[in-house]
Amino acid sequence: TVSVGVEQVPMAKRPFYLSIDLEDFTFDLHRAGGNQPIANPEALWSSYEVLTRYLASRFQGQRLTFFTTGTVARTVPDLVRRIADDGHEIASHYNFHDPISGQDAATVERNLVESVESIQKASGQEPRGFRAPAFALPACADEVYGLIGRYFDYDWRSWSPASFGASRPSATCRSPSSRSSAGRCSAGAST
Predict the structure, then answer these.
(1) Contacts 24+ apart (CB under 8 A), 44-49
(2) How far is the C-alpha of 116 from the C-alpha of 130, rounded, in Å?
(3) What's the average model confidence in pLDDT over 114-134?
């Protein structure tokens, strides 16, 4: 239970919103440096075991959303399956942990599809959620947002920075006729 004022509220009755990015930093670092990526499955397993004990001791085993990359799902499918079997949601954190900004729509779609297929194969769940690497998406690439919405429960048309207390990006999108095929933003426009 958790104390709320003088009232004790059982944890199971309180909304619980927590998500974890399950990514292999070692793999990403090697890949970003142009080296042969080396996975570190032991670190991923160890992290999950520590987190499981923490959730059991502090939050009565509440379930989370794990945003994982397609790479992790392919490298350690037994871990991703275990997380799903433990009752957690498995969502997508893209295929690799690459920034989406600057990628053309075909590359984004190819990575989204690979991510979905890898996660579904490993977990047995169809991933419904999506979190971009580094929480960064181009501010005005409607085509990219549309692709994400095609594969995930991602209602980008109703999102507004003001709904989160933020102002709109200062840079503006180019008109559709002046956009490149990638739908890139003008200088400085990103989230």
Answers:
(1) 44/72, 44/76, 44/79, 45/76, 45/79, 47/22, 48/22, 48/79, 48/82, 48/83
(2) 10
(3) 92
Tens of pLDDT, residues 145-183: 888 888 888 655 555 444 444 443 433 333 333 333 333
- Looking up tokens 């048309």 gives 157
Q: What is the full DSSP assignment across the chain? A: -EEETTEEE-GGGS----EEEE--HHHHHHHHTTSPP---HHHHHHHHHHHHHHHHHHSTT---EEEE-HHHHHH-HHHHHHHHHTT-EEEE--SSS---TT--HHHHHHHHHHHHHHHHHHHSS----B--GGG---TT-HHHHHHHHHHSS--TTS--GGGGT-PPPSS-PPPGGG--TT-PPSTT---
- Express each pLDDT in 42-99 by its tens digit: 989 999 999 899 888 888 878 889 999 999 999 999 999 999 999 999 999 988 877 8
